[in-house]
Specification:
Layout: E1 3-12, E2 22-30, E3 34-38, H1 45-53, E4 60-65, E5 68-69, H2 75-81, E6 82-85, H3 97-102, H4 117-129, H5 145-159, E7 163-167, H6 175-190, E8 194-199, H7 202-208, E9 211-216, E10 219-224, H8 226-229, H9 232-239, E11 243-248, E12 251-256
Parallel strand pairs: 3-8, 3-9, 6-7, 7-8
Antiparallel strand pairs: 1-2, 1-4, 4-5, 9-10, 11-12
Helix pairs in contact: 4-5
Amino acid sequence: MNEIISLEGIHFRYDPDDPVVLADLSLQIPAERITAILGPNGAGKTTLLHILLGLLKPSQGTTRVAGKPHIAYTRRELSQLIGLVPQFESIPFNYSVYEYTLLGRSPYLNPFQLPGEEDHDIACRALKAAGILQLAEKPVMEISGGERQLVHIARVFAQQTPLLLLDEPTAHLDLQNQNRILSLLKKMAVEGSTAVMTTHDPNAAIYAADYFVLMNRGQIAAQGPVHEVITPEILSKIYQTPIRVEKKNGYIMVMMDKDLDLWA
């Protein structure tokens, strides 16, 4: 497997007296593919993304990106290599949608340097790709939560990094926009980009991803292709609820199994 990220023996807790969030975690993320990280609330998915980005430093273990340890990169270099769409983001100023998207070009500009024509063109293409070019002049704080999520995604598209990290990217979107974003991620993978997304929705993961990581209690419970990981036995154990996995017309679907008594 051609990997873009490798983690070995990662341990992390937010404070010395806090519970362990990640424990002896090892993981390889394949390049030029979509990896979905699934798991229940509190499994450590968001913490893992922040470690991949370099925002958090593990107390033990090593993290390598594109063959080099995190510490070998400057913050600017990492910003040109990895982009993040957070689950929640506080925007301190009331930027327009266009201005906020243009911030994705910051890693390529020197201090006090203004964006050039190419930067503006890239921002426009990012808005168009996310399907929100018509919102360009709207203040970010005056659009819906779903539209704001699309703006966050457009900003990362403008950043043009080979690796995208997305924390619940479809959580606030309607079905049409979910399909738009997931289809766009698949297209980007075909064109050579790599994306890592966390999600609570196994069916969204199956639609977009071709590699799967299941987390539980700060550890990797399973990782691999869909047929190895997305099974009723593994999912029912991880989520502590009866789950059925069916294949219909070539599509794999995950659903609650009301006929199965998990506790029998």
